[in-house]
Amino acid sequence: MLKIINLSVKINKKTILHPLSLDIKAGEQVSILGQNGSGKTTLLKAITGSLKHTGTITLNGKNIAQSSAYQRAHLIGYIQQHVDQGTIGHMTVEQNMLFALKKKHNLCLAYTKKSINCVHDIIKTAPLTLNKRLKQRVDSLSGGQRQLLALLMVMQKDSSLFLMDEITAALDPNTAQSVAKEVNQILGKRNSASIAVTHDLAHALQYSTRIIILHSGYIAHDITDFGGITKADLINMF
């Protein structure tokens, strides 16, 4: 599904990500762990094309290494840490979701019964009382609610790969758990793969099928069988 060969990133002649190779299969939920500066976010940005890189990136058999970030954005769902980058603050929750559906289905942004019913179906089971805030401006939501909305918007893409960069980092533990659980449930209903940069070791152990630990731009550990591994064990691998 996603095949990376000798991917490397240099910034101002300094190597941030040393040549690494990964083969991620459809349906895999991969957590990327490591200390600050280990290359976690750099890896995601290289995959999206927002950082210049060398090496080969193949997605579903197509080499996208020479594709622009704009071209890759049509193939990859990317959820960033800063919620204001994934939502439109002056619009309502309903309008934001209509915008996401418009990009997916090329629907008119007008309030048609079909489009509104579709939004309500998506939101109705969402946690954090998001279903009660359809007419509320997004910039008045809590951080967790806005992050969840950004997640739901990106998940409307017909993508086989979703990238998530510290999406629960700024949330309180209960809200972070709700968002992480929702992500897991959505991805569980489809055969898309995900790569999630996180510092939350408990979530990595609970929701991942694979854990990759980066150290100084190298892959230090690639773990597919982590039954019995504790948070302390993971920290010792950094």
Observed structural traits:
alpha/beta; 8 helices; four-stranded antiparallel sheet; 238 residues; six-stranded mixed sheet; single chain; 10 strands
Summarize the SSE layout with pairings.
Blueprint lengths: L1 E10 L2 E11 L4 E5 L6 H9 L5 E6 L2 E2 L5 H5 L2 E4 L13 H13 L7 H11 L19 H12 L6 E5 L7 H16 L4 E5 L3 H7 L2 E6 L2 E6 L7 H7 L1
Parallel strand pairs: 3-8, 3-9, 6-7, 7-8
Antiparallel strand pairs: 1-2, 1-4, 4-5, 9-10
Helix pairs in contact: 3-4, 3-5, 5-6
Please characterize this protein's 3D structure.
The chain is an alpha/beta fold and 238 residues long. It is 34% helix and 25% strand. The protein contains eight helices and ten strands. It has helices at residues 40-48, 69-73, 93-105, 113-123, 143-154, 173-188, 201-207, 231-237; strands spanning 2-11, 14-24, 29-33, 54-59, 62-63, 76-79, 161-165, 193-197, 210-215, 218-223. The strands form two sheets. The chain has a six-stranded mixed beta sheet with strand order 6-7-8-3-9-10, with helices on both faces. Strands 2-1-4-5 form a four-stranded antiparallel beta sheet, with helices on one face. A hairpin with a 2-residue loop joins strand 1 (2-11) and strand 2. Helix 5 packs parallel to helix 6. The protein is globular and about 50 Å long. The model has no long low-confidence stretch (mean pLDDT 91).
